[in-house]
Amino acid sequence: MTSMGVDVGGSGVDKTIIAPRYHAYIGELREYIHESTMSTAGRVSGILLNEGRGQAYAAIDVIGLGNGVYSRVAELGYSARAFNAASKTDQVDLSGELGFINLRAAGWWTLRELLDPANNFNIALPPNDMLTGDLTAPRWKVNSTGKIQIESKDEIAERIGRSTDHGDAVVMAFALIPAPDYEGILTYDDHVVISPY
Fold first, then answer.
1. How far apart are CA 48 and CA 44, in angstroms?
2. CA distance 147 to 113
3. Longest dimension (CA), the chain
4. What is the mean pLDDT of each run of 10 residues along the chain (197 residues)?
5. Beta bridge partners of residue 61, listed in sequence order
6. For the chain, is the Cβ count within 10 Å smaller at the N or the C terminus?
7. pTM for the full predicted model
8. What is the rounded CA–CA span in Å between residue 29 and residue 23?
9. Cβ within 8 Å of residue 127, ≥6 positions away
10. What is the pLDDT of residue 190?
11. CA atoms of 156 and 58, how far apart (whole Å)
């Protein structure tokens, strides 16, 4: 496993979704309902130990309940990266022309570019109707400063009647990658990873 995205739902109606990523491939989304933050931290730590083998990291949404999960996973000594959607970023799109209003916009746009067949990244996602719905729901625009802005989670939820938990977890699994051309997603030991689909 290379990384995992963790969207923490807590005890409310939103689900906790964990998206383990193996280079360019996410084979399944793991869903949990009504779990405590410590239970979620235990799940994340267990996956990092058993599947990450000390080399993977968890990108965890730290706004709200996810902050407790992030803190506990980091405290246990596992590689946890805070995904604060509101954070500023200097990342630009593949064209190098557009920036992003925040990390959330950068993450969603990164996945958009990775999924675009014209870019030849060949990433693979699991067949999941909720995920497909989530990834096709957000609207976007370019603001006057040349930065991409993604529709807010609240606006999306009001329009589609639910939170985009599945999409958020997958976005985080592919976000926080340092290479501007995303090569780290597709390569391992100088060999290109080919999608199994």
1. 6
2. 15
3. 46
4. 91 84 94 92 96 89 94 96 94 92 95 90 93 97 97 94 95 74 48 32
5. 83
6. C
7. 0.89
8. 15
9. none
10. 34
11. 25
Both structure tokens of 2: 């290379």
Residue with tokens 């280079």: 23
Which residues does residue 57 pair with via DSSP β-bridges, in sequence order?
Answer: 3
- Look at residues 14, 131, 130, 118 and name the one whose alpha carbon lies nearest to residue 63: 14
| 143 residue type, one letter | N
| Among 62, 35, 51, residue whose Cα is nearest residue 172 | 62
How far is it, in rounded angstroms, from Cα 108 to Cα 156? Answer: 13
C-alpha separations of 14 from 32, 66, 139, 147, 190 in Å: 9, 12, 21, 29, 39
Give the model's pLDDT for residue 126: 96
- Give the pair of three-digit tokens for residue 183: 């090569």
Residues in the chain: 197
